[in-house]
Every structure is written in C-alpha cells, then in structure tokens.
C-alpha cells in the first residue's frame, strides 16, 4: 500500500472519528430532564374532509395530549425545532441562525424563569402542559426515524412553559433591540417586529348588521412556514372546553378563534415595552454602579452547539446580567435590557382560561391577569358585545425620563418593578358605530372618528405606538363609506380589499416615485407613465398592478418598521430593471407575477404588501413574487340572534403543513386564492 494512501486513510479515519465524536458530544451532554408522570389518556382524534383535526377528550388534559399528537402528525419538524430552541439546542439543527436563538434563551434565562414560575401555575394548567409534553414524547417514541436531534426527548411541561417565555418578547421588538446591540449600535427608539408580521381584526355588532348577527373576522398575518405558522384545530372535552381556532407549534391550546359564546382575533401591537439602560462599569467590566454602590456584574459562560455540515461544534460565549435584566457588552459600553413580563410564565394560564370563558365579564376578568404582555385583542360574543383592546403590560414608569431612548442605569429611579392595571389600557367597547377594527395601527383609530380615543388621554410614559398602516387608512375609508347596516358581504369586501390609500405612507411613497426625475431615462419614464394610469388596487385587473406591487414591496420593511423612506429613484430603477430582466416588459399581469407555490400548487394570488388582503413575498429565481407571509389562516365567526355560533375558515396551504405526501398539504390553496371558505364543523 503506498505511503501516501496510508496517510490519507488514517487521516480519513481521524476526520470520521471527529465527526462522529462531535455529533455524539451534543447528544451526550443534552441530559434531558426526568419526564413528567405518564398517565393514561382518553382522547380521540377525528379529521374532517380537509384534514383539520377535531380532538375529543374526557378531560382538558386529554385534549392537550391529542393536540400534541395531531400537530406532530402534521408538523413534527417545526415542533422539534421549537423544543430544541427551548433546550438551547436550536443551533444543533439550524446552524448559526438557531445558535442566535439559543444565545437569546440563555441571555433571558428562559428555562430558569419557567422553573421558578412553574409551581405558581394552577394544577389544571400544569396538567395541561404535562399532557401536551406526553403527547409529543409518545409521538417521538413511535416515530424515531423523524427525530433529527438525539437526546431531545422526553420533553416536559416546563419545556412547554419555557417556550412561551422565550418567544413572547420577540412579538414586541426584542429582535431589533438585541440585533442593534449585538452589532455595536444603539437600539431603535421604536419597538416592533423586524419584518411585516402584522394582522387584521374586525368585529361588527348585531345592532349594526343587516340580519341581527354579530360577526368577527380573525385575520392574523404570520410567516406561512416555520415556528410561528398557523395550524388549525377544533377541540372538545367533557370538562367544557369547546374551541375552534389555530395555534403555533408548541402551544397546547388554540391562541385565537372562538368557543360557543365568544371569540377574539389578535393583531401585533408595538408599544414601548422594552427599556435599555446604559450601565456605568468599572475598568475591567466586572462591576456596575447602582445608587452609589458597586455591584457585581453576573457573568456566566455558556456553550452554543452549532451545526456546520456534519459537525456540531461547541462555541463558548458569555452572558451577563444586572439587577435590570440581561446585559450585552459591546464597544459602546454595557447595556441592560428590561422588558414587560420579565420573569412571568402565566401566559399559558391566561390563554387557557380565555379559551374557557363563557361571557364578556369572565373574559375581561381573565384579561385582567395581564400575563399576555402584548398583542391587541379584537373581541366579539353572542350577546352582541364587541371591542378593540390595546392589550399591553405597561411598566409603571416615573415621569421625567426619555423612556424611548437609552436610560441611565446607575439609579433606581429608572428601574420599574410594577405595571399599570389592565383597566388603564386603551380600549374601545361597544361603540355606537357598531364596528371596531385594528390593522397594526395606533390605538386611537379603532372605530368611527367621533368615538375614537384621544392620545392626550394617555401618559407619554406608556409609550403608545403612533404607527399607521395603509390597512388602517383603508378600513377607515371603507367602513366610513357604508351607510346603514353592514352586511356580511360588505364586511368581506372590506376584509379582502386590495386597495391603497393616497393618505397612507404607501400613497406618499407612490407620489415620490411618480415625482422622480426620469429625464433621459426611457425605462423609468415608461414605468412612471404606467403607474400614472394605475387604479390604486392590486386586484389583477390593471396593466400596472405588478409594477405597483413591486414598487410598494421595495419599501415594505422600512414602512412597517416606521423608518424614513429611502430615495425613490434607486428603488424605481431597481424594480424596473428586475421586471425587464425577468419578463422583458413592465405591464406583466399580476396573475403571472405573484404566485402561491406549495407542493404541486402554483396559483395566482392577488393583493399586495400592506393591503387588507395582505400578501408579502420573496422573489424567486424566475423573477416572480412567491407569497410567504400575510393573509394565511382566516376565520369568519357569526353569532345570529337566537342561534348557535357558526364559523368558516381557510388556510393558505392545508392542514398537513409539512407532509408533502398528504392530500392535505395544499388542498386549501385553490380556495384561498379564490377567497372562498370552508365550513368549520363545530
């Protein structure tokens, strides 16, 4: 055997051993906790013609067990990734992106928070999350070939609770704060998700409808795939839990929807619920000054497990904490972060109780728990009550500080420890106009103008958002244009509206594009002439729709984040160049340009960024916009006078969200693009 071959052989063996060793290292040190008690479960899972699971249990805990099993049947991959993040092992599956989430989990100490608060949850809630964990464990045990991460199972009820503690702050801006500080920049002054993660919610009271029916439209905008994608379910238990709606992977109950008596939609809100403090550090950054005393800066070494090809490599990092909360050290200094709901795990308790509320009074009493730190609730019920609640856990801050900026961290004057009561939040209940709505906009626009709240009625320390959206402007214009009763058809025309308002930021952007000096630039001039003829809708009927949608999408994230609009000329030039390169023309039919693609489905879909029929997309290699966010799970709930609740729903894909071989992988997509419904068998 040649000497060079021998050397190569043994080098290969060494590399292989290293690969196996590093992969095994991750599993060996995983050390999963002792499982919760295993109980016999009495549950039945029936699926309707669309594959939507209807889960029947003797107890509520039995139902939670069935939710876990049914969801795993449809989407075990995302469930596994959510659980891995809770255990600090997302990097072992997802590589660098997952490791970032693991780092945040260590930074905010999500697992310790869950452990500390677990005993304070009611026995019923603990039984619920433990049954859900048991269902995940049983599914994993029966399907070992689907497991990508060894040593992850069994999971426990504490893992389920920790998942809520980890993900909750990301819905009100933690991404943007951490991202800026990690890059050595100061955090933004305004909160909110980093992308167009929005929603619509509408409610019309029976007194304003044309048929004495109270109506609720649930229309949450989330990514169409991944750990916060909607999955539809219907649950029934002999203990009185009856609910139809949808949840995210890792939730042991529906997060929105309706029971027999009431229901709600959620929309992301963006109040200022995160405070950043500049610490005064000593020379070696081991202490910080607080009220004239030097206190030790808590420091802990962690190991991130990061997948790089076949390897799972251990990467050391340090996490720091002060009395305020998590701390990030960068070239600008030390910055502590404190957020609403810090240390609280009762979110699982509140959502569970909301599911079982039987009337408006009970529902409001549960909301007063204030365990859900942010998200608007648009509410309706069988008694005809409607409301828009700007739900937020507002810190009880002292006046006199710039709470949107970076605060001094060396004084207890800026360190809040309590919250404003729920009764102090902005809310509009049973307005005379008979309708309420929210589209991720400021709480002072929620119904007819003469009944809206006034910003001056709320202290600046609350940090109420001042965002407007095109969707807000459109629902104001459209509801205002209805004289007399609001019928079901009128309400649905509003929900599926594809128009842009000239009064919105989108309208301002289009005006800026049309004002670009295109002298000597024939392509830009042609684009402007085409846009000048546009009818301001993205319904696929006009020759300028694709160009207009592309122009709007070019600033989608800047608009949603509340950032300044960029110069229009480069953006217009970029859009024109892309359309000409892919299609050789600017007047591309929207049916050809914007598509829904999932499995074998490749369908035209209408709407656009920040329209009430919200369609967000990525550009595919063929130059087309392929929808991946926005309108997804939608539900229309109706309480007729002296009648039982009925509902209809639609999902952008189908019940089997990742099972390509399932007939329900994309069977709802044709209905979705036609804006049609399926009946919920409740």
Description:
By secondary structure, the chain is of the alpha+beta class. Among the domains are: 199-271 and 346-397 and 418-495, Glutamine Phosphoribosylpyrophosphate, subunit 1, domain 1; 505-679, Penicillin amidase (Acylase) alpha subunit, N-terminal domain. It has 19 helices and 26 strands. A nine-stranded mixed beta sheet has the order 1-2-5-6-7-8-16-17-19, with helices on one face. Strands 3, 4, 20, 21, 22, 23, 24, 25 and 26 form a nine-stranded mixed beta sheet that branches. A hairpin with an 8-residue loop joins strand 6 (242-247) and strand 7. Helix 5 crosses helix 7. It is globular and about 65 Å long. The chain starts with a helix and ends with a strand.
Q: Kindly report the average pLDDT value.
A: 93
What spatial order of strands do you see in the largest sheet? 1-2-5-6-7-8-16-17-19
Largest sheet: 9 strands, mixed
According to CATH, the homologous superfamily of the domain at 199-271 and 346-397 and 418-495 is Aminohydrolase, N-terminal nucleophile (Ntn) domain
CATH architecture designation of the domain at 199-271 and 346-397 and 418-495: 4-Layer Sandwich
CATH topology group of the domain at 199-271 and 346-397 and 418-495 = Glutamine Phosphoribosylpyrophosphate, subunit 1, domain 1
Counting DSSP E segments of at least 2 residues, the number of strands comes to: 26
Poorly predicted runs are: 1-20
Helical percent range?
25-40%
Number of helices: 19
- Beta-strand residue percentage: 15-25%
Radius of gyration: 26 Å
The first-level CATH class name of the domain at 199-271 and 346-397 and 418-495: Alpha Beta
**How would you describe the shape?**
globular
In whole angstroms, the N-to-C terminal distance is 74 Å
Which structural category do the helix and sheet elements fall into? alpha+beta
């Amino acid at each position: 055997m040649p000497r060079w071959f021998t050397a190569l052989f043994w080098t290969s063996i060494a590399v292989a051993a290293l690969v196996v060793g590093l992969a095994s290292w991750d599993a060996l040190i995983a050390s999963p906790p002792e499982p919760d008690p295993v109980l016999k479960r009495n549950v039945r899972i029936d699926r309707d013609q669309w594959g939507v699971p209807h889960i029947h249990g003797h107890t509520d805990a039995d139902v939670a067990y069935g939710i876990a099993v049914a969801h795993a049947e449809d989407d075990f991959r995302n469930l596994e990734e959510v659980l891995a993040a809770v255990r600090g092992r997302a990097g072992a599956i997802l590589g660098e992106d997952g490791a970032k989430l693991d780092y945040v989990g260590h930074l905010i100490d999500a697992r310790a928070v869950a452990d500390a608060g677990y005993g304070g949850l009611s026995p019923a809630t603990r039984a619920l999350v433990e049954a859900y964990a048991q269902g995940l464990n049983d599914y994993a045990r029966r399907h070992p070939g689907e497991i990508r991460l060894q040593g992850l199972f069994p999971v426990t009820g504490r893992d389920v609770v920790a998942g809520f503690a980890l993900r909750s702050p990301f819905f009100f801006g933690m991404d943007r704060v951490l991202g800026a500080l990690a890059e050595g920049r100061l955090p933004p002054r305004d909160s909110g998700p980093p992308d167009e993660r929005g929603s619509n919610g509408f409610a019309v009271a029976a007194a304003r409808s044309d048929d004495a029916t109270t109506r609720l439209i649930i229309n949450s905008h989330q990514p169409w795939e991944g750990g916060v994608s909607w999955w539809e379910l219907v649950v029934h238990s002999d203990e009185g839990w009856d609910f139809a709606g949808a949840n995210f992977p890792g939730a042991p109950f529906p997060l929105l929807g309706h029971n027999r008596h009431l229901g709600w939609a959620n929309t992301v809100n963006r109040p200022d619920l995160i405070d950043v403090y500049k610490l005064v550090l000593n020379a070696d950054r081991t202490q910080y000054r607080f009220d004239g005393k030097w206190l030790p800066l808590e420091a802990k070494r962690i190991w991130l497990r990061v997948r790089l090809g076949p390897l799972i490599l251990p990467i050391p990092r340090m996490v720091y904490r002060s009395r305020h909360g998590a701390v990030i050290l960068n070239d600008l200094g030390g910055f502590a972060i404190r957020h609403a709901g810090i240390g609280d795990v009762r979110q699982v308790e509140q959502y569970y109780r909301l599911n079982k509320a039987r009337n408006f009074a009970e529902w409001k009493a549960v909301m007063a728990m204030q365990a859900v730190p942010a998200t608007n609730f648009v509410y309706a019920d069988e008694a005809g009550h409607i409301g828009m609640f700007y739900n937020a856990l507002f810190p009880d801050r002292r006046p006199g500080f710039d709470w949107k900026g970076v605060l001094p961290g060396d004084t207890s004057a800026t360190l809040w420890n309590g919250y404003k009561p729920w009764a102090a939040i902005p809310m509009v209940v049973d307005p005379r106009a008979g309708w309420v709505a929210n589209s991720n906009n400021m709480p002072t626009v929620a119904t007819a103008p003469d009944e809206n709240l006034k910003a001056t009625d709320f202290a600046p320390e609350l940090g109420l958002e001042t965002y407007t959206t095109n969707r807000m402007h459109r629902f104001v214009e459209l509801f205002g244009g209805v004289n007399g009763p609001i019928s079901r058809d009128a309400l649905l025309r509003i929900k599926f509206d594809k128009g842009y308002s000239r009064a919105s930021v989108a309208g301002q952007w289009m005006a800026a594009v049309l004002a670009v000096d295109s002298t000597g630039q024939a392509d830009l001039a042609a684009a402007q002439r085409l846009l000048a003829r546009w009818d301001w809708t993205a319904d696929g009927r006009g020759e300028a729709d694709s160009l207009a949608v592309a122009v709007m999408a070019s600033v989608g994230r800047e608009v949603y984040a509340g950032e300044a609009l960029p110069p229009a000329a480069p953006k217009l030039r970029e859009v024109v160049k892309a359309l000409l390169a892919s299609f050789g023309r600017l007047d591309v039919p929207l049916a050809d340009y914007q598509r829904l693609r999932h499995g074998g489905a490749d369908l035209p879909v209408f709407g656009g960024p920040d329209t009430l029929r919200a369609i967000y997309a990525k550009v595919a290699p063929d130059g087309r916009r392929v929808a991946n966010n926005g309108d997804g799970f939608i539900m229309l709930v109706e309480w007729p006078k002296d009648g039982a609740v009925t509902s209809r729903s639609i999902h952008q894909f189908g019940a089997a969200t990742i099972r390509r071989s399932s007939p329900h992988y994309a069977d709802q997509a044709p209905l979705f693009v036609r804006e049609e419904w399926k009946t919920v068998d409740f």
